[in-house]
């Protein structure tokens, strides 16, 4: 397409990779109902994770990799957003992780590849998505908010006003540290936050509970009582875990939001070879089945989830 050819080389490569990978999870999601109707429901979300694994193994830098993964994750949004009551909110949320104009270009390429009687409807949806993003001043950039607190609250509350300027967060402060085991999370903590109070959160996907090996006395909380106590007292603390899925992080972030606290997410990762090497050197290496299970659930945090998000290489 002329619009794609006019882009800088790096952006063309990003969109091309997204076009190649956007349906990568369709075979895994393929199912048919008793009447013979075929569905691939959920392939965009699973495709995001699959694309992440492929690009991570190829050594693609995290920022470029995630640009592709977010295009894969949201590639169907322009088709249906205009039919939803929360269409404006959806455009704002999507703009936080992917450029809406680039997403629309990907959707147009996808629509041209559809052989179906309602192809025109797909293009109508894409045009409406562009209009919504333009009206919200987020077609080519993330929708701006009055503060990171305003963004944090909007992304968590469907009824929030994107133009509101809420009171700043209270004294509570948490740093949520997440990443695959062996990624270097422990080393980063030792170098930067050694003296902070720490709570370790077990990972339900790990057969051994995912406890932290640095110190046997690190408090482990399966109920969230300890984080709530730190937040109520206004004591900054580290909440340590794998926290690889948005669902896992959301449960912790709910607790933080309840206390009107500020949260920073630090995601630590390592190249594949280093990850396996570090795991092999652990006192108790994780079984490869556990690592594969975690990789199949790996959703990197983004700016819709916290006041600040950092991606670090361990």
Structure described in brief:
With 314 residues, this protein is of the alpha/beta class.
Properties at a glance:
single chain; 314 residues; alpha/beta; 5-stranded parallel beta sheet; 47% helix; globular
Structural class: alpha/beta
Shape: globular
Euclidean distance between termini CA atoms: 39 Å
Strands in their spatial order, largest beta sheet: 4-5-3-6-7
By DSSP (H or I, 4+ residues per run), the number of helices equals 15
> What is the total tally of β strands?
7
Question: What's the overall average pLDDT, rounded?
Answer: 92
Major β-sheet profile: 5 strands, parallel
Q: Radius of gyration, rounded?
A: 21 Å
- Share of helix, binned: 40-55%
**Which parts are unreliable, with pLDDT below 50 for 5 consecutive residues or more?**
211-216
Series of secondary-structure elements, N-terminal to C-terminal: HHHEEHHHHHHHEHEHEHEHHE
Strand content: 5-15%
């Amino acid at each position: 397409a002329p619009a794609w050819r006019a882009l800088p080389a790096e952006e063309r490569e990003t969109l091309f990779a997204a076009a190649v990978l956007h349906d990568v999870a369709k075979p895994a999601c393929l199912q048919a109902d008793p009447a013979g109707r075929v569905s691939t429901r959920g392939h965009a979300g699973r495709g995001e994770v699959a694309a992440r694994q492929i690009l991570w193994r190829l050594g693609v830098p995290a920022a470029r990799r995630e640009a592709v993964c977010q295009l894969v994750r949201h590639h169907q949004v322009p088709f249906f957003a205009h039919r939803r009551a929360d269409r404006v909110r959806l455009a704002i949320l999507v703009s936080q992780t992917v450029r809406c104009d680039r997403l629309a270009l990907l959707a147009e390429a996808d629509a041209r590849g559809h052989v179906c009687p309602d192809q025109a409807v797909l293009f109508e949806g894409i045009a409406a998505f562009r209009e919504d993003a333009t009206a919200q001043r987020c077609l080519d950039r993330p929708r701006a908010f009055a503060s990171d607190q305003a963004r944090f609250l909007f992304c968590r509350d469907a009824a929030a006003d994107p133009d509101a300027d809420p009171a700043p967060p209270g004294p509570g402060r948490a740093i949520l540290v997440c990443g695959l085991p062996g990624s270097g999370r422990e080393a980063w903590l030792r170098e930067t936050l050694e003296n902070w109070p720490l709570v370790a959160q077990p990972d339900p996907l790990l057969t051994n509970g995912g406890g932290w090996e640095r110190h046997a006395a690190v408090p482990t909380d399966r109920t969230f009582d300890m984080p709530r106590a730190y937040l109520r007292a206004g004591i900054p603390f580290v909440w340590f875990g794998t926290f690889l899925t948005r669902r896992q992080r959301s449960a912790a972030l709910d607790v933080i939001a309840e206390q009107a606290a500020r949260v920073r997410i630090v995601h630590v990762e390592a190249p594949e070879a280093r990850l396996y090497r570090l795991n092999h050197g652990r006192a108790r290496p994780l079984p490869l089945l556990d690592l594969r299970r975690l990789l199949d659930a790996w959703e990197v945090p983004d700016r819709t989830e916290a006041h600040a998000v950092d991606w670090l290489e361990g």
